[in-house]
């Protein structure tokens, strides 16, 4: 059945044709406000140089440094890495939602600076589904984008988080929150895998439906719960209905479970309702630093 579905998918892709998504900066809209920075990585882990709004000043990564030095960056920084099928195009839904999220947070105190970590979430698009919500036919890009997300994390985003940590130690940033969704969760994880293990790590990580195996996460999460006051700095939220992660990800990692299939690592948000003994015993064991 699986082979038949893959064959049909590939046939439709061949018939409909594909367009290449260039490995270049995608944001070309108005210059973002001071409470939002957009940092775009290429597939090799380098940072794209972006110019926004035509003749307006270019906002490079250096602009963020200047904002820190001039105290324009708020004490609380939220970093979000998007997942598969997304990038930094002005009309990208992830970017629009993140912008709205930051603006809502800043309607009250404390204030936050948002950093949208963008990368080429799609390497190609099927022509008749381009710019639509129907993405099933470019499922074949999952293999390549999965590899690229990890590479950017290890060879680009890690340096960016190093920079944020340095500013935090200097007292220029108070709180850092790193959020990653889907393959963005994979990117954030590999950018901070060793940082999470550090006993004095002060960055909080939220991974939403991350494209990771349970083995990727097990050691780090079990180490994380042993931190001071038993307060974890890493939380993983997994939806049981995330087909690309629970089903598709298993195809490209044969023999491994995705995080979404491993109850001992994550659960759906309702797992501990109705006195779910299995979930509650797992949480109790984790809080005691045990391996459930």
TrEMBL record:
Protein name stated in the entry: Alpha/beta hydrolase
Keyword Chloroplast: no
Entry-linked InterPro entries: AB_hydrolase_fold
UniProt signal peptide: 1-21
Recorded coiled-coil stretches: none
PROSITE patterns, A to Z: PROKAR_LIPOPROTEIN
Gene3D superfamilies per record: alpha/beta hydrolase
Keywords: Signal
């Amino acid at each position: 059945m699986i082979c038949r579905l893959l064959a049909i998918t590939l046939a439709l892709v061949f018939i409909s044709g594909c367009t290449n998504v260039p490995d270049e900066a995608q944001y070309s809209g108005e210059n973002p406000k001071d409470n939002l920075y957009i940092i775009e990585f290429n597939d090799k882990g380098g940072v794209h140089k972006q110019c926004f709004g035509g003749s307006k000043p270019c906002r490079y990564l250096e602009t963020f440094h200047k904002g820190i030095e001039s105290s324009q960056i708020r004490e609380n920084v939220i970093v979000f890495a998007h997942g598969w099928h997304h990038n930094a195009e002005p009309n990208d839904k992830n970017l629009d939602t993140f912008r709205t999220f930051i603006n809502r947070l800043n309607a009250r105190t404390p204030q936050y600076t948002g950093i949208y970590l963008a990368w080429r979430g799609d390497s190609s698009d099927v022509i008749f589904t381009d710019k639509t919500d129907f993405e099933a036919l470019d499922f074949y890009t999952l293999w390549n984008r999965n590899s690229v997300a990890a590479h950017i994390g290890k060879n680009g985003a890690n340096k960016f988080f190093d920079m944020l940590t340095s500013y935090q130690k200097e007292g220029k940033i108070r709180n850092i929150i790193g959020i990653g969704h889907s393959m963005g969760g994979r990117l954030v994880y590999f950018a901070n895998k060793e940082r999470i293990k550090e006993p004095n790590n002060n960055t909080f990580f939220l991974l939403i439906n991350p494209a990771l195996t349970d083995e990727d996460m097990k050691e780090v999460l079990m180490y994380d719960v042993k931190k001071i006051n038993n307060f974890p700095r890493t939380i993983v939220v997994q939806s049981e209905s995330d087909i690309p992660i629970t089903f598709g990800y298993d195809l490209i990692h044969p023999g491994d479970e995705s995080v979404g299939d491993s109850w001992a690592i994550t659960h759906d948000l309702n797992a501990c309702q109705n006195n779910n003994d299995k979930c509650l015993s797992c949480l109790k064991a984790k809080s005691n630093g045990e391996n459930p």
